[in-house]
Amino acid sequence: MKNTSLGGLEVSRIGLGAMGMSAYYTGAGRLESESIRTTHRALDLGVTHVDTAEGYGPFINEELVGRAVRGRRADVVLATKFGLISHTGGSAPDSTPANIRTAVEGSLKRLGTDYIDLYYQHRVDPGTPIEDTVGLLAELVAEGKIRHIGLSEAGPATIRRAHAVHPVAAVQSEYSLWTRDPEAEILPVLRELGIGFVPYSPLGRGFLTGDIRSLDDLDADDWRRTNHRFAGGNLERNLRIVDEVRAVAAEIDATPAQVALAWLLAQGDDIAPIPGTKRVARLEENAAADRIELTVGHIARLNNLPAPSGQRYDAETMAAIDS
Predict the structure, then answer these.
(1) Where does residue 315 rank: exposed (0-12), middle (13-18), buried (19+ CB within 10 A)?
(2) For residue 35, is pLDDT > 80?
(3) Would you tell me the crossing angle of helices 60-69 and 32-44 to the nearest 10 degrees?
(4) For residue 78, what are the CA distances in angstroms to 65, 96, 152, 233, 317?
């Protein structure tokens, strides 16, 4: 597995998103032993970057990751997030100093470590100036509790203001063949400032694997059933996207997931996606995308895929995303 740098933090080119091991998606929370085996296999393959958050569960995903990396802490770049949970009785997002300090101590305990490699603000808090938030995070860096600062779903102006207080190593946002929003404004700012980019849901919430052909493929409590891109007939309309990805995959003897990840890697060396899975076989498939070489023609075909039908989140959730 190749490595890359996120604002000075070395990570594997392809990481592991742990959220789906515990919550939200089909099969979440089942067979914890398989999730732990998947994490161990990731580390064996050189996948060092493991991403979680206190909000996943909440709390149980960090606990799972902590158990999975026990005894192998030196092999892992641990990333987690704070802010969508208030520990002070306030409303979320909560980026007050008291909340952040309570949150980081909880994450350290659940992860079974004395430092976090990359600590993200999960969503920008409109009630707390970003300068104050990053100032407090800079104190945690000085204290050795966190090594690097990250932002999730932050807009260009917020990124600039944050980076002026203390270097931001990475920004995380949704980015894939069916969510290309960061290309317009976010990626140019990150490259100007030397900040790395971590795409979450790089496989379109599993859709780009080609394995989801109808809502019947999802559990009754799977969050995707209510997502605009899967509901109201949009899933069927969006199959035209994945079918083209499947066609490219067939031409190069790869899987659709590998093609989708290889396309992301081709967008720049400063991009380190974190596909999520709880299965060893899927982990091995995703990690192998590091070796896939797309031709100029294939990249052009993928660049010209139609826009997806449906918004990526509902209106309330989109309103919480900084712009």
Answers:
(1) exposed
(2) yes
(3) 50
(4) 9, 23, 15, 38, 26
Looking up tokens 């509902």, which residue turns up? 314
Pairing, β 9-12 against β 3-6: antiparallel
Backbone angles phi, psi at 29, to 5 degrees: 85, -10
- Which two structure tokens, joined as six digits, stand for 189? 């700012």
**Mind listing the pLDDT tens digit for each residue in 82-110?**
999 999 998 999 999 999 999 999 999 99
Residue type, 105: E
Structure token pair of residue 312:
């990526």
Nearest to 131 by CA among 101, 161, 155: 161
With beta carbons less than 8 A apart as the criterion, state whether 80 and 110 touch: no
Residue 8: other Cβ atoms inside 10 A: 13
Tokens 């949150």 belong to which residue? 103
Look up 56 and say whether it is catalytic: yes
Whole-angstrom distance, CA of residue 47 vs CA of residue 287:
7
Q: How would DSSP label each residue in 147-176?
A: EEEEEES--HHHHHHHHHHS-EEEEEEE-B
Question: What single-letter amino acid sits at 246?
Answer: R
The count of other CB atoms within 10 Å of the CB of residue 11 is 26
Residues forming a β-bridge with 171: 151, 197
Overall fold of domain 3-205+268-292: TIM Barrel (3.20.20)
> Per-residue pLDDT tens for 180-212?
999 999 999 999 999 999 999 999 999 999 999
Residue in the structure block whose two tokens are 């031409």? 251
Rounded to the nearest 5°, which phi and psi values hold at 3?
Answer: -115, 165
Catalytic-labelled residue, pool 25, 56, 119, 200 = 56
Parse the chain into domains and list their residue ranges. Answer: 3-205+268-292
Between 170 and 23, the more confident residue is 170
Q: Supply the pTM of this predicted model.
A: 0.96
Tens digits of residue pLDDT in 134-180 = 999 999 999 999 999 999 999 999 999 999 999 999 999 999 999 99
Dihedral angle of Cα 136, 69, 171, 145, to the nearest 10 degrees:
10
Distance, in Å, from the CA atom of 87 to the CA atom of 28, rounded to the nearest integer, reads 25
